[in-house]
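User: structure tokens for this one?
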Amino acid sequence: MKWQLDFGLVRVGWKVIRQVTIRNTCDVTARYKMRLISANTGEGWGSTMTVTPSKGMLEYGRSLSLTVKFSPTDPQRTRATLVLEVDGGITQYMTIRSEVVHAQVCLSTNVVSFLPNLPLAMSSYASRLPDLSIDATQLIAKCCIVFLRL
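Assistant:
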């Protein structure tokens, strides 16, 4: 079975936390160690992703919840591997994925709102107010928030 942890779409500077559970299915207490490696290079992952506790003893039949924290500093397509090594046991692997992006606010001038003329002369008190009619060709710029994939 292939195990996978997907952080999904993450903005640069966010801190995202996920839980992973391990279980000792042997009849004896097992010593384990967790490592994070880059799926591209096979080298250890940097400080932007951590797993805790990263090592310890797990009694037979027991489960343990591990915390995986991800705090990306650059936009990237993240592909990492969580490695579970057990003394005298089988090494297990979990794929970790994420898309890290910058959030950017931009001004969009391609959104046009045509407002009708609003004559106020029809109301009885309109003569005391300034003319508030609006030109129907007035362009209204609206702000939008977009994610840029890099």
